[in-house]
Design goal:
Strand order of the largest sheet: 12-25-26-27-23-24-13
CATH class of the largest domain: Alpha Beta
Mean pLDDT: 94
Radius of gyration: 31 Å
Helix content: 25-40%
CATH architecture of the largest domain: 3-Layer(aba) Sandwich
Strand content: 15-25%
CATH topology of the largest domain: Rossmann fold
Bound molecules: adenosine-5'-triphosphate, magnesium ion
Length: about 550
Amino acid sequence: MNDNQPKDFIRQIIAEDIASGKHGGAVVTRFPPEPNGFLHVGHAKSICLNFGVAAENKGRTFLRFDDTNPGKESEEYVRAIKDDVRWLGFDWNDRLSHASDYFDQLYEAAESLIRKGVAYVDSLTAEQIREFRGTLTQAGKNSPHRDRSVDENIDLFRRMRAGEFADGEHVLRAKIDMSSPNINLRDPTLYRIRHVSHQHTGDKWCIYPMYDFAHGLSDAFEGITHSLCTLEFEDHRPLYDWFLDQLEPPHRPRQIEFSRLNLAFALTSKRKLNQLVSEGVVNGWDDPRLATLAGMRRRGYPAAAIRDFCQRIGVTKKENMIEMALLENCIRENLDLGAKRRMAVMQPLKITLTNYEQGKTEMLTAQNHPSRPELGSREVPFGREIFIERDDFMEDAPKKYFRLKPGGEVRLRFAYIIRCDEVVKDGEGNVTELLCSLDHETKSGSASSERKVKGTIHWVSAQHAVSAEVRLYDRLFTVADPGSVDDVMSVLNPTSLEVVDAKLEPALRESAAGIAVQFERLGYFTPDILDHSANKVVFNRIVTLRDGWAKIEKQALQQQS
Ligand code: ATP
Ligand code: MG
């Protein structure tokens, strides 16, 4: 966090609490994912906030698995979440916890609520409980079991724990107020019976606490000072506080809500992500088209760029939708500085340079970065046959088209100026090859290369090119807010993945997974973490360049003037 930046409202509250000596100046936060899916970009916002504010104030952060829902949760998700938090750049050290670590304490807390007369065992069916709860406009009704004696409640609750009852036979409820305008306070359920094994506690329990009860008390047990969560929990805060009022734990956390991150063209609902994964619409939770952390990592988004993005979007209470362009700009900015430039052709069109010696290979020097000479240069082989991008040639080109056209000239990046003399076509009239002549006096960097032309295009030597599978990703959805559509399947972009047989300059064969490069004029790319090897070269497109043409053409014009 930049000190010059105005503090968001949460950081202001924390600064005030530190100044007033609340919690002895301590700042303890937690990130509490439920292990029922992979983390997504929305979670990144919460992770950056929770770990960020603690780090800025010499505080601590727990990674706490909210595992109160056995059956939907799994160890696979636990592992993935840990990997993702670490990858994003945060460390919980020894502060790894689970709501299930506190099942004994939570059980004790429940019994003490019963003894205080503010919790009771109810034996209505789930459906009756729903009916009795009332509606937003109508008060609820008391359950006929609401006035059971403390002894009877303790006895029933212990027998619930002992496994004497079937799922749904009884629940433990808080006794608050069935006519409260806040439905969360209408005797919320604290415990329900579920005869299922838990991934962490095995078969020790057959009653499981509800989220609201477990969450606030886990916060208290861990000494959390500021419990930061998204706005949908605002109406739960009175309940959060009610538990603390009743049980008076030594540490009293405070819940503060902020608006969730909604990212345009991205899904941030685990349930819907799960649907895409299980129905095979995408290739797993780490599909590079998903805004999951695992997907973004595989796509090649640097963790630092995601952290930068989270800082730029800030923290408020206002619901809003962030444009994908903002995230992509953070990615570009991050990659621009470090990514070495390389040449690669996605849609190869062959050129034969008719006046270039057959069989000759020339090594040309190419800068690795236009503005960072310290990144050095490399040698790129050049020969009689090369590939250029199919759309860098146009047969019936307008006057302002400065790339290759019949009779026109263009500069090959780091090489020579060539002229298109002849267009070769197949029987159906498709262009299959260009015959061009090269001006030997125009080698880039040589003393005699003063002659300028307006267009510069990239190329690779046909003889030396590495064939590669390149995966060009586009938005997965056709609408900006796929989360609001009932049937996400109906808004899938059919061209979200285009796989091309590309030709790369030979230096790219040695690329290491996790390292991004810029393919000149095309975008940033990285070898696929899983599928790339020296024998089968596979690259992912991380992000396009905003304006590949303008930049290089501007440079060319500057050189000219
Ligand atoms: P579910 O739909 O399963 O409830 P969830 O997205 O709420 O999923 P959790 O695992 O409960 O996922 O979330 C962990 C934490 O991340 C919570 O504190 C939650 O508030 C926060 N979080 C979840 N989604 C977002 C989001 N889009 N923006 C900011 N924070 C989020
Ligand atoms: Mg949740």
